[in-house]
Amino acid sequence: MKISLPLISGLCLFFLTPLCFAEPVKLTTASDKVALADYLQGSNNASPVLLLHSFMQTNEFSTVNRLATSLHDSGFTVLSPTLSLGINNRKQSLACEAIHTHSLDSDSDELKQWIDWLHHKTQKPIILIGHSSGGPVILKYMDDHHAKFIQHGILISMAYYGSGPVASETPEHAEKATQAVNQNSDPLSNYALRYCKTYPTYASAFLSYYNWNLQKTISVINKYNDRISLIIGTADKRFDNSWLQRPDAKNSHVVTIEGAGHFFDRVHELDLLETVEALLENTSER
Q: In terms of CATH architecture, what is 18-94+104-160+213-284?
């Protein structure tokens, strides 16, 4: 259904929906694809927030979309990009069975472009917030670029690759991909990744995600522990969060929300917003 401009104007006057405030933004990626984002200009003086979606989703995914709207309502400037994943003008989530040309490296490079754009736009340090598999993209950027322009990172329902209750990838997949790379071959082949039982991609692209395992995740979090906070739901069944009790993870700043699942939906939506806003307030006071 097409919505006419007069109808949009009427909705804005009556409901004051997020559509009224969002400024669509485009940039061209290193692979010459157009990537999209929504920019919401805030009313306060705080650092701007960049909100990153989870695995193969878009900025319309409910968890990040609700959070973007709520933070803007609270006065924050918010940039909510949709990673292109190698698709021009991508506006929909990507199917597991699609051919995946993207990698964690290209995701991180694209995030860098959006960070550069937001820093140039606001001339302020940036707070990164990532949901689920958005976390590794943020951590890779921080590790590769020494957290340039980043005031703080908030990782919600932190994901990692290579293990977990919903992980489909196996050591056999990794061995297959490693052998291909070692033979200077990078063929398109079927792998599995996260909840995807069938995930067609290239060996090097698969390994870029697979190698971002729990140990790598912990090491980077520890490296930037003064600038990273984790928000974990105690009822999150997608990841085994017992790793938070490991001795090498003790430096992590972790906030738990009792009874919340991976997506912080329903009764825990407000809990997530209040927790994020409290972290943003603490960050601004430093």
A: 3-Layer(aba) Sandwich (3.40)
